[in-house]
Amino acid sequence: MGSRRRTVVLAVAGVLAVAAVTWFWPPAHRFVFGPAEPSDRLLVSGNIEAHESVLGFSNVQGRITQLPFDEGKAVAAGTVLARLDAAVYRKQWRIDAAALDVAQRQVDVAHGNFAAARSAVTGAALDFAEKRRDLARTAGQFAIGSASRQAYDLARTAAGQSAAALAHDRALQAVARNDVALAAANVGAARAKVALDRVMLGYTVLRAPFSGVLAVREAELGEFAGPGVAIFTLDDLDHVWLRAYVNEPDLGKIRLGEPAEITTDAYPDRRFLGHIGFISSQAEFTPKTVQTHAQRITLVYRVRIDVDNPDHALLPGMPADARIALLPAPR
What we know:
By secondary structure, the protein is of the alpha+beta class. Among the domains are: about 30 residues; about 100 residues, Helix Hairpins, CATH 1.10.287. About 45% of the residues lie in helices and about 25% in strands. It has 5 helices and 12 strands. A 6-stranded antiparallel beta barrel has the order 1-8-11-10-9-12. A hairpin with a 7-residue loop joins strand 9 and strand 10. The longest helix has about 60 residues.
């Protein structure tokens, strides 16, 4: 037991000695950890991120009849990614289109009825004018005794009946005018339904909203899809960025728009160009109560470094490092 204990103690002492030499002796430190970062540059690490859009069918549902692409496929904006069985929506469009045709024919009928009612009013007005003249003549003759009382009463009755007929025809004309307006409104409603049917038919086709790479395919041909069901996840690899964090003491040494050089383990001999596109105004990982200087310098701030990615070499989730030239410390 004593011999084994001495062996363990010697082994631990040896490890500590090697660690001390490695840490404090510059040549050994550089051999183990690589060359030290220049003091005028800030090294931050993080992961590549990109705009992701989860795509699916909205407002319609049905079985998937077309799903031509798999994961990893690069697609251009507007590319058809999937189609649903649109038979029900197409039939509804035909029904509403037929209803629109009926509504348009009703407008023609209403216009014809209004024209007939207007002609009837014109005829009734002429008849009423004639009856009023007859009544005036008969009244004059009755006054001088050349016409009988009966003739005067008949003329007055005829004038009254003509006035009533004119009022009736004018009422029918007003109804016919309202029928024209109602028929026109029905045509507008029918057209709106047909337009909505076209929109719904358009929803049965899923298109890429922007150019990108299909990162995830979450559906299969023949499956039932509808609102809330994801079909693809589309990544916009033309616009990627590095999410990283900067210690609070280094926050005053960087600025928006400052260039940065990005490297990855996947492409060790390649340098990607970028610039700082965002610096958070709020610290993260903040202690509930900061009482000492040691606690205060543990605050970090999130930064976003926009990276040029013309050939889509950088992918979401890929670890990367960025080197940023530090500004002179403020006096």
